[in-house]
Design a protein that fits this description.
Elements (H helix, E strand, L loop, with lengths): L1 E6 L4 E6 L4 H10 L6 E5 L5 H12 L3 E6 L2 E5 L7 E2 L1 H4 L9 H8 L1 E5 L12 H9 L3 E5 L2 E5 L8 E3 L5 H11 L5 E5 L5 H12 L3 E3 L5 E5 L8 E3 L4 H14 E9 L7 H9 L4 E4 L2 E4 L9 E3 L11 H8 L5 E5 L8 H8 L3 E5 L2 E5 L8 E3 L3 H13 L3 E5 L2 H6 L3 H7 L3 E6 L7
Parallel strand pairs: 2-15, 3-14, 6-7, 10-11, 18-19, 22-23
Antiparallel strand pairs: 1-23, 1-24, 3-5, 4-5, 7-9, 8-9, 11-13, 12-13, 15-17, 16-17, 19-21, 20-21
Helix pairs in contact: 1-2, 1-7, 4-6, 5-6, 6-7, 8-10, 8-12, 10-12, 11-12
The protein binds uridine-diphosphate-N-acetylglucosamine and phosphoenolpyruvate.
EC number: 2.5.1.7
Subcellular location: Cytoplasm
Main location: cytoplasm
Length: 427
C-alpha cells in the first residue's frame, strides 16, 4: 500500500512538461481498431489507464509494441475477438470506447456493462440510443451488452440530449465506415474529440465540424494506419498551474507541453482569482498568488469550466479572501473530495450540487484519502502549502491519469515522496 507524503512550505520553480492527454490517448488507442495494420501513437502518457486500454486491445488480438515510454505501435490486423471483459471495464470505464470502432469495423461488439462509479451513475444510454439510430441492435445478458448491426451501419442524424464526450466519440468512431452521412447534433466539443477526429481524418475518414456542436461524418470504405501524436493534457497542465499559483518561487513555474487555448475558461477564472499567468511558447508561466479572490464557478461541457478541474480549483477557493461557490453540473457525486479537504482545515458546505466555500488562512497537513483521480491530485497539491506533513492514500486513483506525478513535483523542488506502507495485516 503506497501513499504520497508531502511536506508543505517548499517553493517550486522551473519547468514541468505535461504528458499526452489521458482522455485523448485512450480513444486514439481504441480508434486503431478501425485501421487494420500498424498505427504509431506518440506522446502517449505512461499511466495505468493506458495500460488497461492496452490490455483490452491485446485481449482482442491486437499486438502492441512499446517503442519507448511514450510511443506505441498498435497492430490491429489480427483482431479476432470483439469483447471488452468485465474485469477490465470495471477497472476503467473508458474501455467502453471500443464499442464504436468494433461496430464500425466488424459490425459487432460485446462490452461489459460499466455500471456506476464513485462520480455517479455514468449511464451510457445516449451511446446506445445514437448507435441504435445507426442500425445497431442491442441485447443485454449476464452483465454484458451485445451490439450487432446485421444490416451494417447506415448514416443518419442523431441529436444528443446532452453533449456527452463518450457518446460523441463512440458515434464518430462507429459512423466513419457507415453507409452515407451521419450528423451528430449537440456533440461534445472537447479538444480530445478534435484530436480523435484529426487522427481519423489522417486515416482516411471524412469528418467535419469536430470541436463544434455539429459533427458530420461521411462514411468511407477503408481506413489506413497512421502515425499520430497525442494532444497535451490540459487537465494535467491545469493541475500544475494550481500548484504554481500556491507555491511558485519568484521566477514562477513554466508549465509546457499543452495548448493554453484548451484551458481558456480555466485560465480566465484563475486570472479573476488574481493569478498571474503569462503565455509562453507551448504553455504558460505561472506566478505565485499571495491573495486569491473568491470565485463563482460552474462546471460545464467544453468550452465551459471542466469538471476535471473542479477539485483543484476548490483548493484555491478554500484559501481565498471570502466566500466562493462551486456548482458541479456534470457528475452528481463529485464533491467527495471536499470532506477530505475539510480534514486539512478547509471550510466547505455541500448542498446538492453546490459547494459553498469560506476561505481560511491555511491548511494543516493531515492523513487523507484520494476519493478519485482529480480529488487525489488536488489533495497532494493542497499538501504543498499545508503546515507540516500531508499523507495521501489510495493513490492508485492518481496514477490512472498522472504520469510520474511525484517525480514531476519533486523536480520542481517540492518535498514529496511516494512511501510504501506495510500491508495492514502485517501491523
Ligand atoms: C475517459 C474520458 O474521456 N473521460 C472524460 C469524459 O467522461 P465521459 O465520456 O464518461 O463523460 P460524458 O460527457 O459522457 O458524461 C457527462 C455526464 O453525462 C452522463 N451521461 C453520459 C452518457 C450517457 O449515455 N448518459 C449519461 O447520462 C454521465 O453520467 C455524466 O453525468 O468526459 C467527462 C466530462 O468532460 C470527463 O470528466 C472525463 O474525464
Ligand atoms: C473523470 C475522469 O476520468 P474517467 O472518465 O476516465 O473516469 C477524469 O479524468 O477526471
Amino acid at each position: 500500500m503506497d501513499i504520497i507524503r508531502v511536506e508543505g512550505g517548499h517553493a517550486i520553480e522551473g519547468r514541468v512538461c505535461v504528458s499526452g492527454a489521458k482522455n485523448s490517448a485512450l480513444k486514439l488507442m481504441a480508434a486503431t481498431l478501425l485501421a487494420p495494420g500498424k498505427t504509431t501513437l506518440e506522446n502517449v502518457p505512461n499511466i495505468s489507464d493506458v495500460h488497461v486500454m492496452g490490455k483490452v486491445l491485446k485481449r482482442m488480438g491486437a499486438v502492441i509494441e512499446v517503442v519507448d515510454e511514450h510511443t506505441l505501435i498498435i497492430d490491429t490486423s489480427a483482431v479476432d475477438s470483439w469483447e471488452a471483459p468485465y474485469e477490465l471495464v470495471a477497472k476503467m470505464r473508458a474501455s467502453t470506447a471500443v464499442m464504436g470502432p468494433l461496430l464500425g469495423r466488424f459490425g459487432c461488439a460485446k462490452i461489459a456493462m460499466p455500471g456506476g462509479c464513485n462520480l455517479g451513475a455514468r449511464k451510457i444510454d445516449m451511446h446506445i440510443l445514437g448507435l441504435e439510430a445507426l442500425g445497431v441492435e442491442f441485447d443485454t445478458d449476464h452483465g454484458y451488452i451485445h451490439a450487432t448491426a446485421p444490416q451494417g451501419l447506415e448514416g443518419t442524424s442523431v441529436t444528443l440530449e446532452f453533449a456527452s464526450v463518450g457518446a460523441t466519440e463512440n458515434l464518430i468512431m462507429a459512423s466513419v465506415k457507415a453507409r452515407g452521412t451521419t450528423v451528430i447534433d449537440n456533440a461534445a466539443r472537447e479538444p480530445e474529440i478534435v484530436d480523435l477526429a484529426n487522427m481519423l481524418n489522417e486515416m482516411g475518414a471524412r469528418i467535419t465540424g469536430a470541436g463544434t456542436p455539429v459533427v458530420t461524418i461521411e462514411g468511407v470504405d477503408e481506413l489506413h494506419p497512421v502515425t499520430h501524436r497525442v494532444v497535451g493534457d490540459r487537465i494535467e497542465a491545469g493541475t500544475f498551474i494550481v500548484a504554481a499559483a500556491l507555491m511558485a518561487g519568484p521566477a514562477g513555474v513554466e508549465v509546457v507541453g499543452f495548448n493554453p487555448h484548451h484551458l481558456g475558461m480555466v485560465i480566465k477564472k484563475f486570472e479573476t482569482m488574481g493569478i498571474q499567468i503569462e503565455r509562453i511558447d507551448n504553455g504558460v508561466r505561472v506566478f505565485r498568488c499571495e491573495q486569491f479572490a473568491p470565485v463563482d464557478i460552474q462546471t460545464l461541457p467544453f468550452p465551459g469550466f471542466p469538471t476535471d478541474m473542479q477539485a483543484q480549483v476548490m483548493v484555491l477557493s478554500a484559501l481565498a479572501q471570502g466566500n466562493s461557490i462551486i456548482t458541479e453540473n456534470i457528475f452528481e457525486n463529485r464533491f467527495m473530495f471536499a470532506s477530505e479537504l475539510v480534514r486539512m482545515g478547509a471550510e466547505i458546505r455541500v448542498e446538492g450540487h453546490h459547494a459553498m466555500i469560506h476561505g481560511v488562512d491555511g491548511f494543516s497537513g493531515a492523513q487523507v484519502t484520494s476519493p478519485d483521480l482529480r480529488g487525489g491530485a488536488a489533495l497532494v497539491i493542497a499538501g504543498l502549502i499545508a503546515d507540516g506533513y500531508t499523507e495521501v492514500s489510495a493513490i492508485h486513483h492518481i496514477y490512472r491519469g498522472y504520469e510520474r506525478f511525484v517525480e514531476k513535483l519533486s523536480n520542481l523542488g517540492a518535498s514529496i515522496e511516494c512511501v510504501a506502507l506495510p500491508d495492514p495485516i502485517d501491523d
